[in-house]
Amino acid sequence: MEISALQKARNAYQPKLPKALQGAVKVQEGAPTQSVDNQEEIKALFPNTYGMPLVEFVPTDKCEANEVMNVGIILSGGQAPGGHNVISGLFDGVKRLNPENKLYGFLMGPGGLVDHKYIEITEELLAGYRNTGGFDLIGSGRTKLETTDQFEKGIEILRKLDIKALVIIGGDDSNTNACVLAEYYAAKNYGVQVIGCPKTIDGDLKNDQIETSFGFDTATKTYSEVIGNIERDCNSARKYWHFIKLMGRSASHIALECALQTQPNICLVSEEIEAKDLSLNDIVEQIASTVAYRASQGNNFGVVLIPEGLIEFVPAIGRLIKELNDLLASHGADYMNLDKQAQREYILAHLSEANKATFETLPEGVARQLSLDRDPHGNVQVSLIETEKLISEMVGDKLAQWKKEGKYEGKFSALHHFFGYEGRCAAPSNFDADYCYALGTSASQLIANGKTGYMAIVKNTTACTDEWKAGGVPITMMMNMERRNGAMKPVILKALVELEGKPFKTFAAKRDLWAKETCYVYPGPIQYWGPAEVCDQPTKTLKLEQE
User: Fold this and answer.
1) By the 8 A CB rule, do 142 and 77 touch?
2) Of 202, 204, 432, 434, which one is the catalytic site residue?
3) Per DSSP, which regions of 144-295 are E strands?
């Protein structure tokens, strides 16, 4: 396989590790933990993995011999920059523990465990993937590990390969599944440990113990480079409004971080829209007012950032989606074979009056997406809804109405973009390369110390890498009960944008100026070599949160 000069040079990069992981380590345990909510329910569901202590690794001079053990690894869910470095850190970690240890990768996600599809990851195989983007070494998938049959199929291959521990790299749903699997294997005394690892470019898998999920740093820097390029073009041509939708299914972390990096005229934050109970029309009026003001100053151009999951956070639409979720979970089979018109009529007949009124006002394509096409987790596939076009068309209609009324004199031409896949497999930034390698190494130490039902963590990440702190957090500590597909289930609590948090407040303090003036910032591409202040900086979100 031919590789670029950049990839050759990146292969040679040796990720930096925290001091605590550079040599022999010992475990320092904290106090027992409890779940963030629904403590009794979570404890009852996870009696063998609930209440375990936080773990931190500290250096030691005592180097103990480790027995031979094989480890398995799974990449689950959407891609995120740095996945190959988690594998590299785990591989190097288990080989340091004992050179006879083997690492097996299950192919195309959790389904590879169930279907017994795997490869042995060797130094020769891994060499070409170090510090690269993508998940193509072993692939990923969205199979959910949640049934006894799947767990038993898994143990068959784990025993055949003499695997003592399994590492699952994924987001909140995947790590919830990892916790369920850890509990099952612990209850059965199968002797297989299960460790999770926090991955999602969306940035919504974070809390007091997880400062950031891997991939967020690289993805937001990749998007910000392109947004900056568009802003510069926008400021050069001075005749288009660019509506840019950004990946982020449930939270607006990506949009907010990109706004902090590039200073667009408008950035919508879904969590604020929900908190203020704004309607689609309210949002459209706000944008149209900014367009009109800038036109009055001779500026018929601008940039608008829109989070992918916006449509679900508009309260009226959110209430509609909630009722649709329950309806589809209990009666979906009743209308799946009906034609499109009959399906629409069926849904309207079964909705409450308020939600029926909302459903009727939506464009047909959007209504169909909300009611029929779901992802494997039962979620609305918001990435398929062209929110950026919907909003720009509504803004155009509003401005046309104002023009008739003599309230607006400018020109409005819209262009549309969706940045999603462009950032998921980018070559990892130095931050993500180091962070992911440390997560993989932490996972190897959790395994060596007999832990299960834990997620590998690295903290203090705004300091230099020597001062990062590595360890593990019980996955049950992050869980609560939520309604999924019509039933209450244990899940890791998603981290949404905090409106009282420093990142949002910093943005909110400046956005009125950005709306009126042209304050664009052009971050440029990710840098891998050069001064630390250029190459090794974390995201603005992480800096502000840790100040």
Assistant:
1) yes
2) 202
3) 163-170, 193-198, 241-246, 266-267
Instruction: Please give the Cα distance from 202 to 185 (Å, whole number).
Output: 30
Phi and psi, residue 42, nearest 5°: -65, -40
Distance (Å, whole) CA 445 – CA 43: 26
Instruction: Report the alpha-carbon distance of residue 222 to residue 205 in Å, rounded.
Output: 20
Q: What are 329-384's pLDDT values in tens digits?
A: 777 677 677 787 888 888 888 899 999 988 887 777 778 777 765 555 556 666 67
Neighbouring C-beta atoms of residue 239, cutoff 10 Å: 12
Q: Are 506 and 184 in contact (CB under 8 A)?
A: no
pLDDT digits (tens, 9 = 90+) for 46-87: 999 999 999 999 999 877 778 899 999 999 999 999 999 999
Q: Does the predicted TM-score (pTM) go above 0.90? A: yes
CB atoms within 10 A of CB 84: 27
SS3 307: strand
Q: Which residues pair with 357 in a beta bridge?
A: none
Give the residue from 24, 6, 91, 201 showing the smallest Cα distance to 437. 91
Helix (H, G, I), strand (E, B) or coil at 234: helix
Residue 432: active-site member: no
